[in-house]
Specification:
The protein has 301 residues and is of the alpha/beta class. The chain has helices at residues 6-9, 30-41, 57-66, 110-116, 119-135, 156-165, 177-182, 187-202, 222-230, 250-255, 259-270, 273-280, 288-292, and strands at residues 18-26, 47-50, 72-76, 142-145, 169-170, 210-212, 238-243, 284-286. It has one domain (6-299): Glycoside hydrolase/deacetylase (TIM Barrel). Strands 1, 2, 3, 4, 5, 6, 7 and 8 form an 8-stranded parallel beta sheet that branches.
Length: 301
């Protein structure tokens, strides 16, 4: 695809390179909230998204009320991946919804969600997650997806509809069906994702060009790998760079087998190296609030 049309609407050039420094999993645990709060205070990151069904959501909302300038979205949560620390739907306890496993928590994998979750139940769940965020004092700028659980032909429409109804920018990538297939998606999903994103962009909803995220399984030379990944942003693109920072605590180590990578993300962002290197390379940094402001009036909250 050509240059992202949102660039010109942002007052930038078609050849500019733009990055969003995004924090996932805010409120998953105390260590994730503390990390985001510190990184936001120093503007080492440009936005984040909160996991409404998780135990530290209320503490995140309290922080957000004290920091109304914070660019926070909702991290559409339909999975619960850990063994001893789990969460479930906020909208239903009905197993027929397909939103729960045999422990009455969200399924552990996105594949299970894709196979069993009913689209109507997904739509109701995500709408309530957005509503609860608003009621708690957060004004969601965007809706993105935990573990990519909505990126399939059955559920992506329910996801984008929930976001648009709330006036939040939905996560979407400007990729052709062929590019989605090369990313490992089946033919039906690839066609559906491409079609929905193309249609939304034609109606004035800003979309992203690429998602850049280093797997949490990578622990060796994580800073170098991360910086190399960010150098892939091309002229005319808006990139969504995802991090999972968390402060090193006993709680975090007990919850997450990948805690070392999360602490590594925190330390790298805290150093300021990510922001300084991108800015030195001429990459413009924005948050999701700037893109939400571009949404057509019919989708504004």
């Amino acid at each position: 695809m050509g240059a992202n049309p949102a660039l010109m609407r942002l007052g930038l050039k078609e050849t500019d390179r733009v990055a969003i420094l995004h924090v996932d999993d805010v409120g998953m645990c105390g260590a994730s909230l503390d990390a985001f709060a510190e990184l936001w205070a120093t503007r080492a990151v440009t936005c984040g998204s909160v996991m409404v069904p998780c135990p530290w959501f209320r503490a995140t909302a309290a922080w957000a009320r004290e920091n109304p300038d914070a660019d926070l979205g909702v991290h559409a949560t339909l999975t619960s991946e850990w063994s001893g620390y789990r969460w479930g739907p906020v909208s239903t306890r009905d197993p027929a919804s397909g939103l729960m496993d045999d422990e009455r928590c969200f399924p552990r994998s996105s594949a299970e969600v894709a196979a069993h979750a009913k689209p109507d139940a997904v739509g109701a769940e995500l709408r309530l997650q957005l509503q609860l965020a608003r009621e708690a004092g957060i004004s969601p700028t965007h809706l993105d997806t935990h573990m990519g659980s909505v990126l399939n032909a059955r559920l992506y429409g329910a996801f984008t509809a929930a976001a648009l109804d709330a006036g939040a920018m939905p996560f979407g990538l400007r990729l052709s069906a062929e590019q989605w297939r090369k990313g490992g998606y089946d033919e039906e999903t690839a066609a559906a994702l491409s079609e929905v994103v193309t249609g939304l962009e034609a109606r004035g909803v800003p979309m992203l060009d690429r998602m850049l995220m280093l797997s949490l399984s990578v622990t060796e030379d994580r800073p170098a790998h991360t910086l190399n990944l960010l150098r892939r942003i091309e002229p005319g693109q808006i990139a969504y760079a995802i991090f999972h920072p968390a402060i090193d605590t006993a709680e975090l180590r007990a919850i997450c087998p990948d805690w070392r990578s999360r602490v590594g993300d925190y330390e790298l962002l805290r150093s300021g190296r990510i922001r300084s290197e991108l800015e030195s390379a001429g990459v413009r940094l924005i948050g999701c609030r700037e893109l939400q402001a571009l949404m057509p009036n019919c989708y504004s909250s």
